[in-house]
Amino acid sequence: MAEIRVPVLPLASGLHGAGEDLVRPVVEAFRERANVELVAVEEEAIAAEPAHFLLILTGGTERKALAFADRARGPIVLLTHPGHNSLPAALEIAARLRQDHRPVWLSHLGAEEVALPVLGQAVALARNLRGKVVGLIGDPSPWLVASSPSPDALAGKLGWTVRPFPLDAVLARLPREGATPIGGNGEGIGEGERTMASRVHAALAQLVEEEGLDALTIACFGLLPHRMTACWALACLSDAGIPGGCEGDLPALLALIVAQELTGSPGFLANPADLDLKRERLILAHCTVPLSLVASYRLRTHFESGLGLAVAGRVRPGPYTLVRFGGKGLEEGFFVEGSVLPEHPDREDLCRTQVAFKMPKGALARLLREPLGNHHVLIPGRHRAVLAAFRDLFLSS
């Protein structure tokens, strides 16, 4: 049994007959050769999917496919096989859809440009992202000049609801009494900073519960005049399965939510702070990191301000994927598989958590040549193919 199950709408010409005898051998061939289980379902179920897989069984199906595409909103994936003029029909269908500026992907049995299981995972990711309610607390930081897309892009392409809140929504929920100071080894951190971190976490957690948020990003620098930081709170929320992003950055929050859905664990949002082209190494740094990603950590002050509390963690080495979504409509992406190295820079001129990331040849040069913005997210594991398929299917149009 193939691991990936993909719902499909079988289409056949009346000249070829209909029924199980026509579908069964094609489904079996896809299972054996493409390692994917095609599950024939009704048209209504296919129309409700984030991407619509049409199994072109025979020629003469062009009008049927286009009629379905007129009723469906998402990308169309045409699956073809070597017999019964399946491929010629799909080429005609795909050409017309392209003329109509519809996203379309053609995958021929045995000659997939991208493996069908990868497409299945990309569609499953989009399905899991649907209906997310995310909080944007405060305005995006003013320096995010390329990282503040309209929330409409997320609503239209992914079915998200982006709910804005003022920073006062956090301040009003700060517990006044009884906050328990957080533990952990600290450097330059006293009980006041520990209690503050606990209070901010409690306030954000309350906002999440009351408003039914699946994730949030906060203009955290707006807390500094109150001698507060959100670094600890965002780490704790992320570890609890509520992705928490910094500085009101929505593209970075998308990557953090993708990390949670792909792996069941959080990602690490960071600044690409320094690089070594010759050794293909990138230094990533930020003042918060989910504790589930680190082998150890210390509590320190926030780097830029010297105030509040930040997290200086040592991210576990191993394979990771560096992720950045970008463009005005989030139609672009930078996805690089590499390794977090066991070395730790421990520099005093960078944010507190610092990671040395080994990248494949040419990736750093591309980062400099075609940047999509500042914040990038490290996701544990290797996910480049799925992320590229997800971008192409659901964000590129």
From TrEMBL:
Keyword annotations of the record: Carbohydrate metabolism, Isomerase
GO cellular component: cytoplasm
Source species: Candidatus Bipolaricaulis anaerobius
Family matches, as InterPro entries: Fucose_isomerase_N/cen_sf (IPR009015)
Superkingdom, natural source: Bacteria
KW Isomerase (keyword) present: yes
Gene Ontology MF, one: intramolecular oxidoreductase activity, interconverting aldoses and ketoses
Name the record gives this protein: Uncharacterized protein
Record-level GO BP terms: monosaccharide metabolic process
